[in-house]
Known about the structure:
- This protein is α/β, with parallel strands linked by helices.
- The protein has two domains: 22-73 and 157-276, Rossmann fold (3-Layer(aba) Sandwich), CATH 3.40.50.150; 79-151, Adenine-specific Methyltransferase, domain 2 (Orthogonal Bundle).
- It is built from eight helices and seven strands; from the N terminus they run αβαβααααββαβαββ.
- The protein has helices at residues 25-28, 48-53, 67-93, 96-103, 111-124, 153-162, 212-228, 240-245; strands spanning 38-41, 59-64, 166-170, 185-189, 231-237, 250-257, 269-276.
- It has a seven-stranded mixed beta sheet, sandwiched between helices.
- The longest helix is centred in the N-terminal third of the chain and has 27 residues, at 67-93.
- 36% of the residues are buried.
- The model is unreliable at 1-8, 201-205 and 260-266 (pLDDT under 50).
- Belongs to the N(4)/N(6)-methyltransferase family.
- It comes from Leptolyngbya iicbica LK.
- Pfam families: MethyltransfD12.
- This is Site-specific DNA-methyltransferase (adenine-specific).
Amino acid sequence: MTIALQTRCQPRPFLKWAGGKGRLLEQYRRYFPAQFRRYHEPFLGGGAIFFHVQQFCDQAVLADLNEELVNVYRCVQADVEALIALLQRHQSAHCREYYYQMRAQTQLRSPLSRAARLIYLNKTCFNGLYRENRQGHFNVPMGRYKNPKICDEVTLRQAAIALQNTDIVCGKFTQVLDQATTAQDFVYFDPPYHPISATSSFTGYNRYGFRAEDQQRLQQTFVALAQRGVQVMLSNSDCEFIRDLYAGFHIQEIQASRAINSNAKRRGKISELVITSYPVPSI
């Protein structure tokens, strides 16, 4: 693959993603391990943590259960210039009618066409939210953007460079047990957050959901990795259920911005947890 532009700029996410960690990197830096060779991220999403830590590791394994998301990353990795060409067409054609026409396109076969469609919808839908109905079809309405930047060529090319030495797989988070085996491995889990109340839910963005029993299975995976000496870090909501699950590990609070609520007045700071299998140096 030939990438037209190669600079030394820090790569960053090319997708908007609910729960993305881009704005939390400054708080997260102190929680990363001092040394590791292999990085694993089983809930990839927007990939903000990967794009930050990839400069410090030799290899990375990125995974997600969302097949379309995995396809996007693979296309950026393998043929970013062809993807950019398709996105430029979307940029030229964008309007309300075109948005809903593309949203209804569920039978695209070409991996590149599917990837360009997802990026286009991500950049133009309401609040950058990825949500599927029970049939697995994207169903978010169009956002109110005057001039959305659908084709960010520089960011895509930088992402392509960062992704060159990675394995990108589609599968469940438990697959990391087959890949991370030593203290040279660093695993970061960013699952759908456990609801902090009966009326809140961070789990309903795709057809699969993420229930309490999934959180328990994730905790078992965390424990199994930690027992091997793997360095493990996890983000989740600050609630009694999560604190009880990870009692005995290193639990820290951070302040994050709530950015998903449709009412801007209800967006604000909220406490979240960062849990590590290793001690974190005090400030």
